[in-house]
Every structure is written in C-alpha cells, then in structure tokens.
Design goal:
Blueprint (H helix, E strand, L loop, with lengths): L3 E4 L7 H12 L4 E4 L4 E6 L3 H11 L8 E3 L15 H10 L4 E6 L6 H4 L4 E5 L4 H10 L3 E2 L14 H8 L5 E4 L10 E4 L6 E4 L5 H8 L32 E4 L4 H9 L4 E6 L10 E6 L3 H18 L3 E5 L8 H11 L2
Parallel strand pairs: 1-8, 2-8, 4-6, 5-9, 11-14, 12-13, 12-14
Antiparallel strand pairs: 2-3, 3-7, 4-7, 5-6, 9-10
The structure holds threonylcarbamoyladenylate (TXA) and magnesium ion.
Amino acid sequence: MKTARLVVDPHHPEAEPIARAAAVLRAGGLVAFPTETVYGLGANALSASAVTGIFEAKGRPANNPLIVHVGAREDVAAVVGDWPENARRLAERFWPGALTLVVPRGANVPDEVTAGGPTVAVRIPDHPVALALLRAAGVPVAAPSANRSGYISPTCAEHVLRGLDDRIALILDAGPVPGGLESTVVDVTTVPPRLLRPGLLSAREIEAVVGPMVRASEESPSPDGPLPSPGMLARHYSPRTPLECVTEDGRKRVEQLRDDGLRVGWLTFGPVPALVPPGVVALSMPCDPAGYALRLYAALHDLDEAGVDRIVVALPPATEEWLAIHNRLSRAAAR
Ligand code: TXA
Ligand code: MG
C-alpha cells in the first residue's frame, strides 16, 4: 500500500485532509497523526480488525495494550466501565494533555486494545490536528506511538515514514511535535494511584492533585515473579545503535571507544565542548527537562542515520524533574 502524506497546518488544520484521514479511520484503516507528545498510529478503537492492523504494522507484541484517544470528556463514557474519583480530578485538571489514565474498561472495547486485561488506558491529546481528527472520525482512536515496536518514538513525519512507509494508509504531516516525549501513564484503579510510565507531564504536578503515587515505573520485576505491568519492558525506546549512559561528561569514554576504532555519537549535557575528538559526532542537549525532552528522540534518530557504532550519553542530574528522561535513557541503554 502506498502511504498518502497530507501536509496540514499544525494550528489551524484544513478541513479536507482531516476529512480524508477521518474517512480512512472509519473504514478500518491506519492513520498516523501528530499529538502534543509524539506521532501516534491510529485505528478505530471499537474495531478489533482495525486495531489488529496496528499490531501488524508495528510488529508490536499482542500483550502490550494500547491507549485510546478521545476528542472530548463526554466521549470517555463509550470506552470506560467506571470513572474513579481520581480520574475525574486528573481529567478535570490536565485534559486535554499528556496524561493517560488507566481505568476499568468498557464492555465494547475489544480485547485487542486492552491485551485482554480488565482496564483500558485513555487520554484526550492536546494538539489541534489530533483533536480535529478525533472529532471528524466520530470514533475513539487507539494509537500507540507511530514507530516499529521497541524503537524510538517519532517526533516528526520523516521519523514515522522511516519505519512505517507503505505499511499504513495515510499520515497527517503537521511538522515537528511540540512535546517530544510520550504521555505520563497513571493507573487510577488503585488508591494511591500507580505511576506506570513517567512522561511529559511531571509526577510532581500529578501528585499535587492526587497525593503521592506508587512509583511502579521504577520497580524492577523479579525474575520469577509475575510479568511486569504492560509497557514496563526493560528494553524499549531504543535506537538501533548500542547506547550507553555515563554519569560524568563522557569525554573519557568517548575517547576510549574512538581509540578502539569505533565511530561514536556523543550527547553532551549542555554545550558541546570546544575540543571534540576527531571522528566523533557530538550533539548538545538542553539543560532543562522540557528542552531535553523535545530534542532527545530527534537526536537519537539523527545518530542512527549518521551511522555511528556507539552512542554515549552524558546523563542529566538524578533529580525528580529528570525522572522521565532517565526512564527513557535507561530503557534505551538496556540490551
Ligand atoms: O504520548 C503518548 O502516550 C503516545 C501518543 C500517541 O498518545 N502514545 C504512546 O503509546 O506512547 P504507546 O503504545 O507507545 O505506549 C502506551 C503505554 C504502554 O506503556 C502500554 O503498555 C501502556 O501505555 N498501557 C496501555 N494500556 C494499558 C493498560 N490497560 N494498563 C496498563 N498500561 C497500559
Ligand atoms: Mg511506544
């Protein structure tokens, strides 16, 4: 299948491309679209066969459930079974936004979406194109990040097409996303809630509304215990190039690998030093979490494209505000 790429204004999406994409979704096809976090790969969440298409296109394991996207609060009722008090409070405060709530599932949500489990993940994205698409489609849209399973999430249309060109019907190309990191996933079926995946919305902001959460995202699964919660696989969000993290500036490690004859990509924390060893591709990363989030996946995509043999990342500080970035970097480094 040839993938149609429709360019659309990120702030004032034109009606024609939105209508075409909505028609594809209603007919059971796959549409990649921008959200405020990363590009998603959408299908009609109420159609088991449409959702199966997502798993095929991504090569995603069937036991990893999907986030259902809706365009308005009242649309949540169609996919959830119960709406806990903490869901009400968090949705009220943060939707539309980069927060995904895990709640009891509704009866008409297919098992393909929830991986057969008793809960469903749902959010309202905060991007004019995503919202226009959801409204025009008139159905809830299941959408994981629009990348091949395990790989880095896409922050622009080029990233999506590198992995999924000719595997999906259509992409709405609204340029680079404003956020760059996935949504924060919180399970509100328990009190206290459980943080399943740190993300663009900080844990601190969420805890200001619902009190302290259980940091389930940072628990390492025991080898003979039950499977970790979905999406908590150690290796994920990984570039093709082996990646390692270091706690100092990284220069010693970069020089050592270079001396071993490897081509090295170096993500520095802050400005690139004046003297970069020859043959090393150095990229400067911002020193604030939001700036870093916006740059991270694009930098990893760039280094993969540059064909380096190894990526060395100088870690940001190990403080709370860097939780989501550390989470992604440690998963990217896991082999
Ligand atoms: O920012 C985002 O969340 C993007 C955009 C497109 O919305 N989507 C995204 O989807 O990152 P995906 O599939 O790449 O990640 C969804 C995460 C996974 O970790 C998955 O395991 C978890 O949400 N998840 C989905 N349903 C769940 C459920 N019922 N219980 C627990 N975790 C769930
Ligand atoms: Mg993903």
